[in-house]
Amino acid sequence: MGLPYFYPSRQFIMKITTFIFCFFLSDLLFAQSADTSKTDSLLIRAKTTITFDSAFYDFGTVKQGVMVKRTFRFTNTGADSLRISNVKVTCGCTVPEWPKEPVPPGGKGEIKVEFNTADKVGRQLRILRVVANTEPEETLLQLGGEIKVAKKKTRKQR
Description:
By secondary structure, the protein is of the alpha+beta class. It has a domain at 50-148: Immunoglobulin-like (Sandwich). It has two helices and eight strands. It has helices at residues 10-30, 37-43; strands spanning 50-52, 56-63, 67-76, 84-88, 94-97, 108-116, 122-132, 138-148. The chain has a four-stranded antiparallel β-sheet, with no helix packed on it. Strands 2-8-7-4 form a four-stranded mixed β-sheet, with no helix packed on it. A hairpin with a 5-residue loop joins strand 7 and strand 8 (138-148). The radius of gyration is 30 Å and the shape is elongated.
């Protein structure tokens, strides 16, 4: 003979369900939030301003395959140190390089950009988004021009 089968009554199921519900509800009510006082102070950084000598560079007309290079110069015109956290680009053909150290108030800096025109034809516009502790957080830089197809040499031209 085996153990007797246990068939819970509807009333028993309701009591268990109510108990489980109350347990999870009390867990939500008495849950404590993390101490965010330290992280909040890190997130609240002083805002400053950035001023570029020129935010647009027209590289004119170039042949396909040429590396277009540009240096965007800027000044920290705010009262606090400027921290550039990122320079976002839209494709891998544009490579930015920016200062990783804070720029003091009144200090100057450069963002160097290389644009590879290989596999590009026609009018091109590249937008760079400079992310920093400024208001607004993103400042746009633009790089544009015309790319002409490089002519392939024929046997007679060689």
